[in-house]
Specification:
There is one protein chain. By secondary structure, this protein is α/β, with parallel strands linked by helices. 39% of the residues lie in helices and 13% in strands. The chain contains 18 helices and 12 strands. The protein has an 8-stranded mixed beta sheet with strand order 1-4-3-2-5-8-7-11, with helices on both faces. The chain has a two-stranded antiparallel ribbon with strand order 6-12. A two-stranded antiparallel ribbon has the order 9-10. It is globular and about 90 Å long. The relative contact order is 0.10. It catalyses: 3-O-(beta-D-glucosyl)-L-seryl-[EGF-like domain protein] + UDP-alpha-D-xylose = 3-O-[alpha-D-xylosyl-(1->3)-beta-D-glucosyl]-L-seryl-[EGF-like domain protein] + UDP + H(+). It is an enzyme of class 2 (transferase). Pfam families: Glyco_transf_8. Belongs to the glycosyltransferase 8 family.
Length: 432
Amino acid sequence: MRRFARVALLCLGCGVCSLLYGLSQLALSPEREPEPGGGRERQARDPGARRRAGNAGRGEAGAGRCKNLSVSFWNSYWMLPSDVCGMNCFWEAAFRYDYMKTHPSEKMHLAVVACGERLEETVTMLRSAIIFSIRPLHFHIFAEDQLHESFKNILDEFPYEGKANYTIYPITFPAEGAAEWKKLFKPCASQRLFLPLILKNVDSLLYVDTDILFLRPVDDIWSFLGKFNSTQIAAMAPEHEEPRIGWYNRFARHPYYGATGINSGVMLMNMTRIRRKYFKNDMTPVRLQWGEILMPLLKKYKLNITWGDQDLLNIMFFHNPESLYVFPCQWNYRPDHCIYGSNCKAAEEEGIFILHGNRGVYHDDKQPTFRAVYEAIKNYSFGDDLVHSLLQPLEVELQKTVHTYCGRVYKVFIKQLTKSIRDLYARRSKGR
């Protein structure tokens, strides 16, 4: 009997070893998805950058380790896409969480779509992201072909100090309905809908409109990814705080999220989750994935939507409200928050974190408060003292706008900016 027990134990041990060996072999040869073509990558102000230029999508994982840059704290190891794992990933899986706590993902991914006369506005947005952010950034710039060379020439001269690199992509839409997608709302605006399908190797992404200005580190909005619950795939801010001036609740002819809809000018996405999710909808009882639902939505609602792709996102999250994380209005502060009187309480208390100059307010005299912030960041020279070259001149200009509703609360425009500058100098003094 004792001999039989020994034999059984030996067989069990051999079986376990065989299983572990098989799983480790699977992990040694993961399937890799190629980076979409057409991109051009640059790393400015870095020795050897010119040699690496043009190699968009090159893997960044170290030999013999998992590809940590694509790993997210909020995704279970076994739910990660195939391109995440490298050599010995099976054996390292148990240690991944502890490793990630001490070695956070190095890069934050930020995407923007620029068409027409949006070059200067986009560059100013990128400048604001670079000034305050802590961790390195990767910019994914989708632009019309005639803008590519201009972007390259400008961005290659930025003194990044190793803080950012970029890839430039052409504007591309699915063959089916490409013409409709391109002209939907503003030129190229609907490109953002297809980012999860184009950037297949990017796990998480912050999309912003060209008329965005960061007044605090991108790291801070990026941290919302860690606050997503198990069902949330994206984060946006409400379209309005005050229903009496809301557009969706008064005029929309289609479903929309929440009481006043959502604004897609600042959109944080866990794209791995977006690609996996099956969405409830009002077109079929069958749930559809992201790539399957977009064209049917356009066909059904194209005569009823006013704001293009933003309306389609509202419809989608109306049917899937559990999938959206809503962040406060100071993360997407627009003229609507002050032109009829201040209605973003969070900004009044803490200041504006991200300024969104829609309605073209950076380029006319209708809202001089917004234009003053834009001009200050556009004209700031990297390396100059931020207090004397940006903050103080800006405050002088803002004080000239107190005859407007937004100017009356001009201090909310510099409250967080002041703190961001102070924090930046504190980090520098500590050598960070």
